[in-house]
Amino acid sequence: MVKKMVSAKINGHAVTAPDSMNIIQAYWHAGFPRISGVGCLEGVCGSCRVMVRRVDSGKVTAELACQTMIEEGMQVQFLSFQTPKQHTYRLADFKNSWDVQSQFFDIFPEVSHCRHCGGCDVVCPKDIDVENGVGLAAMGRFREAGELFVECVMCNLCKSGCPEQIAPNQVGLFARRVTAYFHIRPSNLINRLEAIRRGEFRITR
Amino acid sequence: MAGIPYTEALSRYQIAAPRPLRDSSLAVADLLEQFHPDYLKNSTVELKVGANKGDRCHRDLARILQSDSRIDDLALAGVEVLETDVLVIGGGGAGCTAAITAAEQGVEVMLATKLKLGDSNTVMAEGGIQASIEPSDTPQMHYDDTLRAGHHLSDKALVELLAMSGPEVVRWLIQQGMQFEVNKYGDLLTRKPGGASAPRVVYYRDYTGLEMMRVLRESVRNCKVVVREFSPVVDLLSDESGHCAGAVLSNLSMDAYTVVRARQVILASGGIGRLHLNQFPTSNHFGATGDGLVLAYRLGAKLRDLDSFQYHPTGMAYPCHMMGSLITEGVRSAGVQILNALGERFVEELNPRDHVAAAIIRECAEGRGVLTEKGVGVWLDTPTLERQQPGIFERRFPKLVQRGKQGSVDPRQIPMLIYPTLHYQNGGVVIDVNGQSTVPGLYCVGEVSGGIHGRNRLMGNALLELVVFGRRAALHAAANLRRSGYHRVSLEHLSNMRRELMRLGEDMTYKGPQLFPDYANFDNDPDYRDLNYRIILGELGARIRKLVST
Ligand SMILES: Cc1cc2nc3c(=O)[nH]c(=O)nc-3n(C[C@H](O)[C@H](O)[C@H](O)COP(=O)(O)OP(=O)(O)OC[C@H]3O[C@@H](n4cnc5c(N)ncnc54)[C@H](O)[C@@H]3O)c2cc1C
Ligand code: SF4
Ligand code: SF4
Questions:
Q1: If we measure between CA atoms, which residue out of B425, B471, B477 comes closest to residue B452?
Q2: A205 domain-assigned
Q3: Average pLDDT of chain B?
Q4: What does the pLDDT look like over B380-434, one tens digit per residue?
Q5: Mean of the pLDDT values across residues B97-117?
Q6: In this structure, are A145 and A179 located in the same domain?
């Protein structure tokens, strides 16, 4: 459990910190303020997007700063951007689950232009099979597509990486939402709702 | 502190079948009194001003409740002024639910939040949400369990609504597009929370909050809600009759304010973990600094239970950079054992949280804990659970496995070291069944409100509460818009409080609300570059693509 100090560059600032810290902790440790790209600090809110270049591989990757430990020689750039404009749709407007597939293309017309370039896969910090998810949704296989996006934190990196301006994460979320909206009908829940409606349950204080 | 060093304790640890429970030798009341952090000597003080004058309050919270405002009337001269019917403050689960519901009623809604929409405690919730839907369960049992866990100090009218609304809330969430775990017949799976008498928590993997927040955020973006991100509220506004009449938003560089005049204000700014009460680590998100309590208190709202907080028993204690991170109670529901450094079981794992937390603190205080370089903890016997139910971690707790990888501790092989973490604010702003505070025009919903959980909360009741009361407040607010339009708004209420504090000779150098924890160095930040020189998205995309292709 011996701490090693490492030196790295974050947003152009030289930073020295113990290697037991993640990027945000290291930046704070070195005395720099950091607010806008911080959120849950547990890798689920998708706020702390960074681009990271490591010395050994020279490769650049997109990651979440709170989930990435600081390393010797690492170069880090925070990517703070406002949430991009997005498509709007309302689940309540879908009158019939048979029509979802056709409406999907009305809402996300650019999905049919996917180049299968894999850009989205490369940038996804959660290693989601994004391109495949977009492909499945395009085939109307929404339940399967949605399953791939279980861990999506809506960081929007895939969207910024897509040459066709597809919002793969929104496609994934659409797939998940229509699945719940049309197909989750638990009988235990419905029975209880009915019983409550009939007045079978009252609370005595 | 005495105890056994980590490596030594780990080498002693063995996977084993269920172990006998050691006799506690202390009654629960004594255990809490001696070891629960709420009872620490000198941790509370008496409030000197405001609606709760004379009440006990945690020292660190009292400091912010009796702090000076960051602004005065002068700061508002000539600033941008916006108007809306309903202003929602906070972009977590409660705020989004309220905004969606109000917008459905056809009124104008604006939602202002501190950071990104959805950055909140809600997105971090893992365990699930309570609703009595199993045949072996009833709303009455839900009601009774909630009261008992809260030491019979809850507001009964609020708890009754909570228990009766559970099933309807789950239905509403499904209709928003949220998924839950179901069995092969499509029935909802449930698990039993600590302190409950029946299985009652519905969930989605250990990502219940992520799934919920994704869906609610998308819903907000899909209705006519004006969203202002990176816009922390620094104070509420009042009109000549003392009604709440809007709020002052700031930007992150604190150099531009916006006045929002609103007919109704719904405050949903969440909890307090990042104040690190009693120097505890926390499971909360970065912006959980109790701002809402300060805003409401200055306007005259009555608060309650300001000396009662929830320390979740299973916070991570090792590796040290993850201290405070939460391990979901779902793991305890699944049957995991808690062991001290000697390998003894010392507490019934599924007892209420305050009880289990106090028992862990006791083990450590009495020298039966495992020592790390920064602290102390006890074992969560995850390898034995994996042995008993092979594959359970992969299947039900993917987030935990993921987190283990990041800290090089695979919970399936090595027991996780845990210590209580500051998790939840049990009390808060006093509300009625429609979420109304004691100040007209001000509703408070979600973690910022008080009264439902008494002095201890059951797992799954917070997510339930925020939908139940988020919806009720929004419906009530939208149906009761004041007709006379917008009123003259001011910060008059601040001057009164300020005068009173000066009269008492209070130190006025501390400015609240806190907004961010000290270590983020917020107030020393002269210009906030990223947001000032915002990188436009197209350019960013180009940069990413270039880098990816090299
Ligand atoms: C790790 C973790 C796990 C949990 N697990 C569960 C669980 O399994 N089940 C359960 O029922 N509960 C759980 N809880 C508790 C539950 O998640 C929260 O109590 C609940 O989500 C609070 O919702 P909220 O909308 O009131 O607050 P939050 O979700 O915290 O949202 C508050 C919002 O207000 C914003 N805000 C704060 N101050 C200001 C300001 N000055 N101006 C503008 N905006 C502001 C914040 O940025 C945030 O967006 C958990 C909590 C944590 C931390
Ligand atoms: S799918 Fe897109 S939004 Fe989701 S985590 Fe991956 S990059 Fe981020
Ligand atoms: S980046 Fe865009 S175009 Fe390329 S594979 Fe992904 S979705 Fe398709």
A1: B425
A2: no
A3: 92
A4: 999 999 999 999 999 888 888 888 887 788 999 999 999 999 999 999 999 999 9
A5: 97
A6: yes
A119 with A51, same domain?
no
- Cα dihedral B69→B75→B76→B80 (10° resolution): -120
Res. B548: pLDDT tops 70: no
Do A166 and A126 reside in the same domain of the chain?
Answer: yes
Residues of A in contact with B281 (CB under 8 A): none
Whether residue A200 lies inside any domain: the answer is no
Query: Which residue of A121, A123, A124, A131 sits with most ligand 3 atoms within 8 Å of its CB, as the best mutation to test the pocket?
Result: A131
Testing the interface with A: which of B114, B152, B161, B179 to mutate, by most A Cβ within 10 A?
B179
User: How confident is the model over B33-49, as pLDDT tens digits?
Assistant: 999 999 998 999 999 99
Residues A61 and A98 in one domain: no
Per-residue pLDDT for B473 more than 70? Answer: yes
**Residues of B whose CB is below 8 A from A152:** 214
How does DSSP classify residue B191?
A: B
- Taking the Cβ of residue B408 and every Cβ of chain A, the question of whether any pair is shorter than 8 Å is answered with no
Residue ranges lining ligand 1, Cβ < 6 Å? B 89-95, 112-115, 119-122, 124-129, 208-209, 232-233, 268-271, 283-284, 287-288, 291, 326, 424, 446-448, 459-463, 466, 513
Give a yes or no: residue A172 inside a domain.
yes
Residue A110 φ/ψ, nearest 5 degrees: -70, -10
> Closest ligand 1 atom to the C-alpha of B285?
53
Query: pLDDT category, A111, cuts 50, 70, 90?
Result: very high
Q: Is the pLDDT of residue B524 over 80?
A: no
Average pLDDT over chain A reads: 93
Number of independent structural domains in chain A? 2
Q: Which of A184, A198, A202 to mutate to test the interface with B (most CBs of B within 10 A)?
A: A184
Q: Which domain holds residue A177?
A: 91-183
Residues of chain B contacting A180 with CB distance shorter than 8 Å: 174, 177-180, 215
Give the CATH number for residue A29: 3.10.20.30
Instruction: Kindly report, residue by residue over B243-263, the tens digit of the pLDDT.
Output: 999 999 998 876 789 999 999
Same domain, A49 and A23: yes
Q: Dig out the tokens for B149 from the structure.
A: 């866990």
The answer to whether the beta carbons of residues B113 and B216 sit under 8 Å apart is: no
Q: A-chain residues within 8 Å CB-CB of B373? A: 1
Catalytic choice (B191, B353, B362, B396)? B353
Task: Find the B416 Cα to ligand 2 centroid distance in Å.
Answer: 29
Q: Are A183 and A153 in contact (CB under 8 A)?
A: no
Q: CA of A149: which chain B residue's CA is closest? A: B211
Clarify whether residues A165 and A99 are in a common domain. yes
pLDDT exceeds cutoff 60 at B193: yes
Q: Is B353 a catalytic residue?
A: yes
Residue A36 lies in a domain: yes
Please check whether residues A98 and A162 belong to one and the same domain: yes
% of chain B residues with pLDDT over 90: 80
Q: In terms of domains, do A9 and A47 share one?
A: yes
Q: Sorting pLDDT into bands at 50, 70 and 90, what band is B536?
A: very low
pLDDT band at B539; cut points 50, 70, 90: low
Nearest residue of chain A to residue B397 (CA atoms): A151
